[in-house]
Amino acid sequence: MNLTYPKAPSNGVQTLRPALQATLQTRGFGANRQFANASPAKISLSEAWRGYSLSLEDLSNGKGLQDARMGDWHYLVFADGVTIADAQLAEVRGHVEFASLNHGTLAAAAVGALKLAEQSPPLQGKTVEPRLLFVSALHVVAIWLHADGEDLLIPIEPTPKELATTRLYSEAALLALLKPAADKAKQRFDADTSGLLGS
Fold this sequence. Notes:
Blueprint: E1 2-3, H1 12-26, H2 33-36, E2 43-45, E3 49-53, H3 56-60, E4 69-79, E5 82-92, E6 95-102, H4 106-118, E7 127-135, E8 140-147, E9 150-156, E10 169-170, H5 171-191
Parallel strand pairs: 1-7, 3-7
Antiparallel strand pairs: 2-4, 3-4, 4-5, 5-6, 7-8, 8-9, 9-10
């Protein structure tokens, strides 16, 4: 499997570096010891890849990946070869700005999913663009392996295990698994008159 990446913002890395340096200096991340203990000199970044999202409405209406909305740029952050965070850049009025740093399981889970994909027979010899797919209302995150004529997905944490497990799915198979949960959640949202759901 060969990975190809979209053309990233020319100043993406330059935009991220000061934010990463400042965060490392605060050392305020007790939940992520690897990040808190990382030396700025040992930090490296992956290629940039794109996040995309589908809403409950999209899933309920049978929409697929071709309807996913493009979102932030994501960079995996490594220290001494270990994945320690996911850094995000948002495009704002034609230029990129630092958006957030995710110290949760996403970065390590993304690397694990890419390793799984490398060993999967359906992907042998193929060139794919890795993307991240978010269905936020269901807490679903998946690695989206986009290739000409075929899209494969690997759900990763924090995706609930009862919705999907960490393995390779076709687009049709994963969306079929998610649709009942999306329909149910959408009914709850539509029936809510308090205005509190989703706030």
